[in-house]
Amino acid sequence: MTRPRKRPTSADVAREAGVSQTTVSFVLNNRPDRAIPEATRQRVLAAAGKLNYRLNASARSLAAGRSDVVLLHVPDVPMGPGITRFIESLASALAEHGLTLVTHLQGAHGRALPDVCASVGASAVVGFVAFPPEVVEALHRAGADAVVPSGPSGEFVMDPVGRLQGEHLIGRGHRSLGFVRPAIPALGPMADERLAGVREACRAARLAPPVVVTASLDAASGAEAVASLAADGVTGVCAFNDETAFAVLAGMRERGLAAPGDMAVIGVDDIPTAALAVPPLTSIRFHLDDVVHRRVHRLVTQLKGVAPEAGRSRIDAEIVLRAST
């Protein structure tokens, strides 16, 4: 049986380069307060490369005063295209600052978030929504220097998504609107916020409030929702997100109805498959990279010990018009 190769150590690099371990540490941690001759520095780097040496994360954390780990808390919701795109964009943006993203899935029902934060040595924690004050305090006690977002309402003001949906349908002549909520309890607060926007649009146009129904992500549930909406005379449907809109479109086909002639449908997120729906789905698009880069900027600012600017940034949204409306 072949034994696995022993992982090279800083002592191995020191012997190969003919220097002390302290010098190796100064060079590999890029200590600006230590003057190392360029020839010595290059000799250490060459030795590290030859031995395929990787700096131990714990040692690097001690040298830097913090780790390069950022912990992302993912709520107990389906990992749909929108969340996946956010995570990919966040990992890429953090990498630009030498930070590594680790995710914590709330739905896994494992250890509490502060315990995970302490276990992985995270220097920062990112959430999809603001954490309660007691959680923020616990995360700081667990070693996190930055928690984003930490305020009661987060750091962004987004265009009211539901209002944009409602205004779009009203502008296309619809006078009876419906709102389809997701059947996922964790998405309830966000659904409430979007529903409030649709109600606002109806109120401004002097129309009756939207008819509200709930649908799961399957054709049968979508068909039940469509039947209920049709019975109330709804001609324009604001779906919570694109996936919910797909269920509505599938339900319409089950009922022998078609968009937009029988009912117009608009979603949210503009996921890649929205353009492939039958008919192609009109949706609300966010500038996701802007959202991510502003959040990372806020996080990096906190890690530098600088208080972030007061106030909240506005994140704009736009309608992507397709055949479903």
Structure, described:
The protein has 325 residues and is of the alpha/beta class. Helix content is 43%, strand content 16%. It has twelve helices and twelve strands. The chain has helices spanning 10-17, 21-28, 38-51, 57-64, 81-95, 113-120, 133-141, 161-171, 188-204, 219-231, 242-254, 288-303; strands spanning 69-74, 100-105, 124-127, 146-148, 156-158, 177-182, 211-215, 236-239, 264-266, 283-286, 313-315, 317-320. Strands 2-1-3-4 form a four-stranded parallel beta sheet, with helices on both faces. Helix 6 packs parallel to helix 7. The protein starts with 9 loop residues before the first helix and ends in a 5-residue tail after the last strand. The mean pLDDT is 86.
| SSE pattern | HHHHEHEHEHEEHEHEHEHEEHEE
Binned, the helix content reads 40-55%
Distance from first to last alpha carbon:
66 Å
Query: Which strands sit side by side, in order, in the main sheet?
Result: 2-1-3-4
Low-confidence stretches: none
Task: Quickly count the helices.
Answer: 12
Mean pLDDT: 86
Beta-strand level of the residues, as a percent range?
15-25%
Helix vs. strand class: alpha/beta
Number of strands: 12
Please tell me how large the radius of gyration is: 26 Å
Oligomer: single chain
What profile does the largest beta sheet have?
A: 4 strands, parallel
Principal-axes shape call:
elongated
